[in-house]
Amino acid sequence: MLWTNRALDYAAELDDPTLSAYVFPRRSNIAAEAGQAGYAVGLANAALKQAQKLPLDVHAVALRARAYSEALLGTPTTRRGRLTKPGRSLIAR
Predict the structure, then answer these.
(1) Residue 14 CB coordination number (10 Å)
(2) Which DSSP state fits 54?
(3) What is the pTM of this model?
(4) How far apart are CA 34 and CA 5, in angstroms?
(5) Whole-angstrom Cα distance, residue 80 to residue 58?
(6) Model confidence over 22-52: pLDDT tens digits?
(7) Where do the H-state alpha helices sit in 15-79?
(8) Residue 85 pLDDT > 70, yes or no?
(9) How far apart are the C-alpha atoms of 51 and 66, rounded to whole Å?
């Protein structure tokens, strides 16, 4: 995760929220594959903090990272509807 962390450092230094929002899902994917699904959800949520300001492709990447992480956690099916609401707002934009 060295290079991904470095990319996040550069994004912060450049004050580039879009780049930061792209790097967080990348870190989320790495954490999920390392078996840290809870941490991965948090990283994906960090990317979505300013979701309405993100380009659609970056927003979609962050939503996918969160969905994958929550699936690894075994999120109950009663919460699945919550996962689709951000997706609906993404389509509506």
Answers:
(1) 10
(2) S
(3) 0.77
(4) 16
(5) 21
(6) 999 999 999 999 999 999 999 999 999 988 8
(7) 17-33, 37-47, 56-73
(8) no
(9) 13
